[in-house]
Specification:
The complex is a heterodimer of chains A (about 450) and B (about 290). Chain A is of the alpha/beta class. Chain A contains 22 helices and 15 strands. Chain B has 16 helices and no strands.
């Protein structure tokens, strides 16, 4: 008889404990709201963290009783996206405000992760300060806005003036065709075989970098394209695709670029910014408008001489055809979680993080192209680095990725094609044919367009 | 009587529940998800649809899956069945004959690789096989120019790394088994004029047969599941040359957000493990008349 009594006692104690902890919403607790904010932070990317810390202080001071719980995720772009998506699957873990890549907006809206912001934006005076192209970055297929951009970017050729001059190339350098690039690169290689003459990312190691700072600059400069926006179909069988692969093959075969083994290393970009450019071992590469953020004071690879030594050139079209240059744009946004329990408050935090002061600080520290017109005209923004004007002008020739739900796999197929070509596993023709077959399999025959 | 028996079972109920919840439930969920188009993003994330065996059909029309399955088999056969198993047995045999100091020194060196956390061992292996890594530096001292192992010989590199990391387990199993082999049988064979290899093949090995089968089962299942080591060293590359099934499942589920297909690959891996397990269990049973 003793045992059951003990058990009963234990059970009743447990029940009392449970009751005490689970259901006691004191009036105080109801007022204490917590906003969960998720964003990316890496050793080379701390600009957003700084903005978030400031916004937290500002917001908590203005809203007593509200705690902003900052949860930076330390990961690269791919892994950050995965972690964010996993958190969004359940209302218990979904963040209230988060940092979202523009090219994932549409597919995440489809998934029901993002809150429709139209009614909130109407009441936000600052929204009119955003330029129209930037507003479109957060627009989904239904025409509503789901995300507000932090900034945008463009891609260009970055070159080391000293290295080019040593090879007898006059600066400023502006190649007009693909052939111009090869001519200059061969001259650099001939004058100093130890210098990497012209690098373009390729392979799966560098992920989106391979296509955004490499393959698309080539493809969009031919007369072909990746995706037909009018017909909403993916283009296959284009000559431009094969030619773009062939150009990469030439760069890698003639050893004008890095070795294939180095290209497949996911960390090769760190060497580009941290070692090769500052040490004069790299003449030119295709990189983003955010490049100065690595070299400026407080950046991951501080380099005092970059303002004098570096130059920027537009990436040319294949034969110099109109509009004469190519660039790619992406950028990141802030969005509110569809499962947020305090959407009003979450949106208010978003506006604090994106107000003029914070947007200016972010655009300067992260070398972003401003999307707020009032920031773009600030003297401090224009004077942030000598390249702001050059890279901002590229907005005129820029392209955006077709951000459909199929896009990540298509992008991966392209990365695979470049990898096969630079490692010599496949000829450009074979790799292009395999890409076509993959695309057909991924999206289905009715969504491809033979060109 | 029956009440007593039920009461006796009571203490194990929580652990059985935990086992069901944390071991069986994920497996069941994985099987279920592999018949849907569950995804991390897009429409399918909001409302996953039942797609029947589509994911499995896709697996066999996909070039990557057969490659990954083949690489997995090669990886398991070379690094576990041959590498860890035979090397472990050899070291254990040599240790029984060597001096105590030598034996403990060798034992410590081998076990050191095993006690390292997997991520640490993976980074150590990466640093060793890297282009400018320890191996190539040593080759350089000897005047030889080593290849870029992780790029030119990715499968060889991960097989060697997994052999290095896992041999200690086999060695410990065999050391214990050899200690149980009765001396007098060996000595009797010696008197009858059996040579060293004859004593090994006809006396020692048959006596430790069940240890061999147990060991093979454990290291096969462990090696089938190796992920961190490969992910850190090569991430499945270059050009999928070291993409084993766990790496493929991870890429599909988390890089491409295709949970349905990723869990289908994982389910095949679970089945493969069960087949291996069943074969070894059968072997074990046959040995005990």
């Amino acid at each position: 008889m003793r045992r059951p009594r003990k058990l009963a006692a234990a059970v009743s104690v447990a029940a009392v404990l449970l009751a005490a902890t689970s259901c006691s919403p004191t009036p105080e607790a109801a007022e204490n709201k917590t906003l969960k904010v998720v964003y990316q932070k890496t050793d080379a990317f701390t600009a957003l963290d700084a903005v978030m810390q400031d916004a937290k202080k500002e917001f908590e001071a203005a809203n007593s009783g509200v705690t902003v719980d900052l949860q930076p995720i330390q990961a690269n772009d791919d892994d950050y996206g995965t972690k964010l998506a996993l958190a969004q699957r359940s209302a218990d873990t979904a963040p209230d405000v988060f940092y979202e890549d523009t090219f994932k907006v549409r597919s995440d809206v489809d998934a029901g992760y993002l809150l429709k912001l139209d009614s909130y934006l109407e009441k936000w005076g600052d929204w009119s300060a955003f330029n129209e192209a930037a507003k479109a970055a957060g627009r989904a297929d239904d025409g509503s806005i789901y995300a507000v951009p932090l900034g945008t970017d463009t891609r260009a050729i970055w070159y080391n003036k000293a290295v080019l001059q040593k090879a007898g190339v006059s600066v400023p350098w502006q190649p007009k065709t693909w052939e111009d690039i090869l001519t200059t690169a061969r001259a650099v290689k001939a004058s100093d075989p130890n210098v990497i003459a012209f690098n373009m990312y390729a392979g799966k190691g560098t992920g989106e970098g391979t296509v955004m700072q490499g393959f698309y600059e080539l493809l969009y400069g031919t007369d072909s394209t990746l995706y037909d926006e009018n017909e909403k179909k993916w283009v296959v069988g284009s000559q431009g695709f094969t030619d773009s692969l062939a150009f990469l093959k030439t760069l890698y075969d003639e050893k004008l670029a890095v070795s294939p083994a180095e290209a497949l290393d996911a960390n090769v970009w760190k060497k580009v910014f941290g070692e090769w450019f500052p040490q004069g071992k790299l003449a030119a590469t295709v990189e983003g408008s955010y490049s100065p953020s690595f070299w400026q004071k407080g950046g991951a690879y501080e380099w005092a001489g970059y303002e004098q030594d570096m130059g920027v050139a537009m990436f040319p079209t294949r034969n110099g055809q109109e509009p004469g240059g190519v660039s790619m744009s992406g950028g990141w946004t802030l969005a509110v979680g569809a499962k947020s329990k305090n959407p009003e408050l979450a949106f208010q935090f978003l506006t604090t993080a994106l107000n003029k002061k914070n947007a200016l600080a972010y655009d300067i520290n992260n070398s972003q192209i401003a999307v707020r017109t009032d920031v773009a005209s600030e003297a401090a923004y224009l004077a942030a680095n000598p390249f702001v004007k050059d890279v901002s002008d590229l907005v005129k020739v820029t392209h955006y990725r077709p951000a459909t739900a199929d896009y990540p796999r298509i992008s991966s197929a392209i990365q695979g094609a470049t990898e096969s070509v630079i490692t010599g596993k496949q000829s450009p023709e074979d790799a292009a044919a395999e890409y076509d077959a993959t695309v057909r399999k991924l999206v289905g025959e009715d969504k491809v367009l033979e060109k | 009587m029956t009440i007593r028996r039920v009461l006796r079972l009571l203490p194990v109920v929580p652990s059985i529940l935990l086992l069901l919840l944390f071991l069986l439930a994920p497996v069941v969920w994985s099987f279920y998800a592999s018949f849907t188009d569950a995804a991390l993003s897009g429409k399918a994330a909001r409302d996953p649809q039942w797609v029947g065996a589509d994911n499995y059909a896709r697996m066999f029309s996909d070039d990557l899956f057969p490659l990954a399955a083949w690489l997995t088999v090669v990886f398991v056969a070379a690094s576990a069945v041959i590498g860890q198993n035979i090397l472990g047995l050899l070291i254990a045999l040599l240790m029984t004959r060597s001096r105590k100091a030598v034996a403990s020194l060798v034992g410590t060196a081998v076990v050191a690789a095993w006690v390292l956390p997997e991520i640490v061992a993976a980074f150590a292996a990466y640093a060793y096989f890297n282009r400018d890594g320890t191996l190539n530096q040593m080759l350089g001292v000897m005047g030889a120019q080593g290849p870029d192992w992780l790029y030119s010989w990715p499968l060889v590199a991960i097989i060697l790394a997994n052999t290095w990391r896992g041999t200690a387990f086999s060695m410990l199993v065999y050391k214990a088994a050899l200690a149980d082999v009765p001396r007098d049988i060996s000595e009797a064979a010696l008197m009858d004029g059996a040579r060293g290899w004859q004593r090994l093949a006809f006396i020692t090995l048959p006596l430790i047969r069940s240890s061999i089968a147990t060991n093979l089962m454990l290291i096969t299942l462990q090696t089938l599941a190796v992920f961190t080591l490969i992910w850190v060293m090569t991430a499945g590359g270059p050009a999928n040359a070291s993409t084993t099934l766990p790496v493929l499942a991870y890429q599909e589920a988390f890089k491409f957000g295709d949970i349905g297909y990723g869990t289908a690959v994982a389910s095949v891996l679970i089945l493969l493990g069960m087949v291996f397990g069943a074969v070894y269990v059968r072997l074990l049973r046959e040995q005990r008349p």
